[in-house]
Design a protein that fits this description.
Structural class: mainly alpha
CATH topology of one domain: Serine Threonine Protein Phosphatase 5, Tetratricopeptide repeat
Helix content: over 70%
Low-confidence stretches: 224-233, 239-250
Mean pLDDT: 83
Length: 251
């Protein structure tokens, strides 16, 4: 392809981009009057800074930084909490502790927050349950989630529902866990709930049902169904178990 044609196509593409992003003036004039040089200037002045400073680029840089120094954010949040002990700072540090599997510390932070007059929030109770589960204490996590449901019956969380199902399974309450996995898999965003449900079905010897779950997951991933768009009106207990236990809707 002739170089002149390549330059012309590049100029047209960049002028179109400038018009779509509100930069037509003065870039259209510059690109047309100084072919190639004008295009290079537009890329250097407008596009490269946009690529480097866009959300995607910032997230990529953050991921790299986290890989190189995974506790950098933890140290920063610890310093902030030491300087100003607020609920927001402590909650941010507790959440970071969960990400780093520092579950013991996370639980201490959530316990402290929940003991404060302004820390009475279901999200912090859920964080505490996640920390307890991470410490291989599924029975304690269940107790925390049950208490959460009693105190905040209108609170809803797909993550809380999945955690509840997992804690039941880890506590050996397999039949109840299967019921909850079945319920949460119907609306949980992503594949995790269905995968865990299918694996538990396989573990208890219900292989045919497990195959159905995995086949449905493959269909979902192929775009033929959009289970993620489904929403369940109640919390993290299935309707049948809620009736049986005489509890209101939950996380």
């Amino acid at each position: 392809m002739p170089i002149a044609l390549v330059i012309l196509l590049l100029d047209i593409t960049l002028i179109y981009h400038a018009s779509r992003t509100g930069r037509l003036q003065p870039w259209a004039f510059i690109i047309l009057m100084v072919p190639l040089v004008g295009s290079i200037a537009y890329i250097a002045v407008e596009l490269i800074p946009e690529w480097l400073n866009g959300p995607g680029a910032r997230q990529a840089r953050q991921r790299v930084a986290n890989k190189l120094d995974p506790e950098k954010q933890y140290r920063k949040l610890s310093d902030q909490l030491a300087a100003t002990d607020t609920i927001a700072n402590r909650a941010a540090l507790a959440d970071e502790c969960l990400k780093l599997a520092r579950f013991d510390e996370a639980e201490r932070h959530y316990d402290h927050i929940l003991s404060l007059p302004m820390g009475d929030d279901p999200q912090y109770a859920l964080g505490k349950a996640q920390a307890q589960f991470g410490r291989n204490r599924p029975a304690d996590a269940l107790a925390t989630l049950d208490d959460l449901q009693k105190r905040w019956p209108d609170f809803q969380s797909a993550d809380g529902h999945l955690l509840y199902a997992r804690a039941l399974a880890e506590s050996g309450r397999v039949d109840e866990a299967l019921e909850e996995f079945h319920a949460v898999a119907a609306y949980f965003p992503g594949a995790e709930a269905r995968v865990r449900y299918g694996l538990l079905l396989q573990m208890v010897g219900r292989s045919a049902e497990a195959r159905v779950v995995f086949n449905e997951l493959l269909i979902q991933m192929g775009g033929r169904r959009n289970i993620c768009a489904m929403r369940r009106p109640n919390g993290f207990r299935s309707p049948r178990s809620s009736c049986r236990l005489n509890r209101v809707s939950t996380i």
